[in-house]
Structures are given as C-alpha cells and as structure tokens.
Amino acid sequence: MRDKDVAQTPGAVAQHLDPRVLRTRKRVVHAVARLLAERGIAGVTMERVASEAGVARSTLYRYWDGPDALVAEMVDAFVDIPDVPDSGDLRRDLVNLLGGMAEQLQSESTWAQVLPSVIAAARVEPEIRRRADRQASTRVDALRAVLDRATERHQLDTHVDLDVVLDQLIGPLYYRSLVRELDTDRGWVQDHVAAVLHAQSPSLRPA
Amino acid sequence: MRDKDVAQTPGAVAQHLDPRVLRTRKRVVHAVARLLAERGIAGVTMERVASEAGVARSTLYRYWDGPDALVAEMVDAFVDIPDVPDSGDLRRDLVNLLGGMAEQLQSESTWAQVLPSVIAAARVEPEIRRRADRQASTRVDALRAVLDRATERHQLDTHVDLDVVLDQLIGPLYYRSLVRELDTDRGWVQDHVAAVLHAQSPSLRPA
User: Fold this and answer.
1) Does the beta carbon of A200 lie under 8 angstroms from any beta carbon of chain B?
2) Which of A18-22, A101-105, B88-92 comes out lowest in average pLDDT?
3) Nearest CA of chain A to the CA of B89: how many Å?
4) Which of A110, A117, A143, A175 is the best substitution to test chain B (most B C-beta atoms within 10 A)?
5) Are residues A98 and A183 both part of a single domain?
6) Which of B40, B123, B199 sits opposite A120 (nearest CB)?
7) Same domain, B13 and B108
8) Beta carbons of A175 and B175 less than 8 Å apart
9) Same domain flag for A95 and A73
10) DSSP string covering chain A, please?
11) B102 and B7 in one domain?
12) ipTM beyond 0.90?
C-alpha cells in the first residue's frame, strides 16, 4: 500500500491529535487493507489485524468494536475530499476529476484491490454501507459542483439533466475498471468526457 | 438461490449428459454460490463445498482441481446467452435486454451477491477472469447485435460510436446497482435507455 493512497482526513481515531494514535491508526488501516485484499472480509479478524499492524489486541479493542468497525475505519481513510478544479474549461475540469478517480481504480491500487470486498461487506453491514456511500458521494459531489458551475456560466445546454450526465460520466469508469479491467488511462478519460459532453450538449464540440 | 438464476448451458461437467452428473453439478454450483456470498472466496474450500452440496470429496476432486476451479464452474453456470430481441423498435429491444441485466444485478439475486467476490477473485486468478469476461461478453454482444441491426436499418445516426453507446448503456447500470445500491427498476431502465439514445442520436426523440 502506498502512503499517498491513504487520505489524511479525520476519521474516528484521527480526531485525536496524539501522533502516536495517528501512527497506530495508519498501521491498522494498512493492515486491514492488506488482509481484505488478500483474504476477503472473512480474513479480517482482530487477531490478524493486531499481528499484521504490530499493535496489542487490547489497543485495537480500545478504539474498534470488531472487524466490521475496522473495515469501516479503513473505508473512511480513503475518503479524500477532492479539490474542485476551476480552470474555466468544463472539459478540462471533468478530465482532471475523473482522471483522479480512474487512477484510484487502476488495478494495482489499494482501493481497487479492496473495493470488491467493501462492496460485498456493504451489502450486509449498514455501517460499512454508510461509509462507502460517503466515500462515493465526495466524488459525485465534486463532479456535480463542476457541472453546476458550467450551467450557471451557460457552458452546458439548459435542458441537460445533470443526474443523467453524472451517471454517464461515472458509470462507464467503474464498469470498465472494476468489472472488466479494461483501459481507463488519461486518453480514454479524455475521449469519454468529450463524448458525454458532446452527446448531452451538442454545442460543446471538441475544441 | 433460485433455480432460475442458474443457466442450463454447458459447462465443464454439463457436457456429460448423465443426469446424475448434471444434478451433482447443480448442487455443487449452488453450494459454491452460497459459500461465496456468505464467506467470500476464502470460505470456498473443497471440504465445505462437499459438505454443503452433500457430495463426497472424492467426487468433487474427480471434476475440479480445487476451489478456484469450483468458482470458475459457478461463473459458467451464470453464462446465460440472451435471446437477442427483435421487435423492430430499438428502444424497446434495449429496455428488454438491459432490464434483464438489471434484474440479475438486483441486490437479492444470487449473481449480485457473488459478483463482488468474483471480481475480487478475477484479479488474482486468470481462469476466473476468463470465465467472468465470457460472462460479461454474452451481454455486451447481445446489446451490440441490437445496435448493429439498428444502424443497418438507419435507426441510429451513422456518426454514432457504438463502443461509446455500449459504455453509456451498461456502465451506469453496474455503478448504480453494484457500487451504490441505487434504484435500477424498469422505470429507471426506460428513462436511462431513452436518455442515452436521445443524447447519441437526437433524431430518436421519445415516441
């Protein structure tokens, strides 16, 4: 797991500012991600996480009730509130945002490796579902902010249904990278954004 | 697991026409799906599958090398070659095909429950990846056949890039049902197909 994969936003534990606690949290989050990627949700036990992270089981139990709470904590560690780009160019802003999402979903990234297990766990654990939804919402909200601004600036046709555009921007990215492991490199993202914008708003022809 | 979830197309074992072998295969496929949905890939062991399916371990080993082969067999059982509808109405045909895919992805269906684990396993097991790709291709191919026919009949604008349309038809369905657990009922499928067709081919206004 690369350090840059883990956002430094506040989670349940990170709200304590004690640097020892922050270091523990980071080791625990990495251990949970490793176990989840290698063994699936059934492989995340308090004993294994304690051993992998090099912390005492009593320390784990001080902050987390059990494996589900650990997975929820890990999901939170990936909540990375993206800066909303504002270059004045709608297509460029969308390519930058969606390109960042595509990088996180590339198959060698930690998030891509744990996401199938997180999805499976979210079906049965409401707390993991809630965290996973918050995780996804940060990205959808950033894309929506870019589209809202473009509408205000009359860069998008007024008849455009933004929910449809969001589905069409995000959906193929997940289908390709998660379900099919097809290419979603920068070139694909550029073509994809251009196609969606042009289809929805024919006045937006390629520059 | 409902019987109708499991397609009766030939897999490794189904090629034997002995009805006892077919019944064994069916019980094994159901057991693998149950274990996978409940415990993830690490929960699929030869011992548990034999016990759940009520077959001898020696019988399992006669047909399958190990747990990965069992999961691959289960994926094959879901390869359901859809009839390509041809009502003469492009939108209706797409709604029927995509509506069938949406039903298979609804959260209580077996396929939706095992798909995250299949995706996770496909990342590390080439044989599972190959079967999962074949599974996905049957659906993409059916959609493509409907679009190709519409192009021949001049029901789609000739400039339309069919790969883009396929991404835009399938992607949001998987993102919504698999990643977000949002609504993908018949009404959503109808609105979605209409929006994609209208955006790509503005001459296709709602009937």
Assistant:
1) yes
2) A18-22
3) 21
4) A175
5) yes
6) B40
7) no
8) yes
9) no
10) --GGGS-----TTTTS--HHHHHHHHHHHHHHHHHHHHH-GGG--HHHHHHHHT--HHHHHHH-SSHHHHHHHHHHHT---------S-HHHHHHHHHHHHHHHHSTTSHHHHHHHHHHHHHTT-HHHHHHHHHHHHHHHHHHHHHHHHHHHTT-S-TT--HHHHHHHHHHHHHIIIIII-----HHHHHHHHHHHHHHH-TT----
11) no
12) no
- Whether A11 and A62 share a structural domain: yes
Q: Indicate yes or no: CB of B179 within 8 angstroms of CB of A175.
A: no
With CB atoms and an 8 Å threshold, state whether B178 touches A119.
Answer: yes
Could you tell me if A95 and A191 lie in one domain?
A: yes
Domain holding B24, by residue range, is 3-77
Give A 175-194 residues with CB within 8 A of chain B: 175-176, 178-181, 192
B103 with B187, same domain: the answer is yes
Q: So what's the pLDDT on residue A141?
A: 94
Question: How many domains in chain A?
Answer: 2
Boundary-marking domain end, from A77, A98, A130:
A77
A103 and A55, same structural domain?
Answer: no
- The residues in A 144-173 lying below 8 A from B, measured between CB atoms, are 161, 164, 167-168, 170-173
Mean pLDDT along residues B44-70: 95
| Domain termination residue (choose one: B45, B77, B109) | B77
Per CB-CB distance under 8 Å, the chain B contacts of A200 are 199
| Assigned token pair, B51 | 């016990």
Give the best residue of A180, A189, A203 to mutate against chain B (max B CB count within 10 A). A180
Mean pLDDT, rounded, of chain B: 86
CATH number of the domain at B105, please: 1.10.357.10
Q: Could you report the per-residue pLDDT of A152-191, keeping only the tens digit for each?
A: 998 888 788 899 999 999 999 999 999 999 999 999 999 9
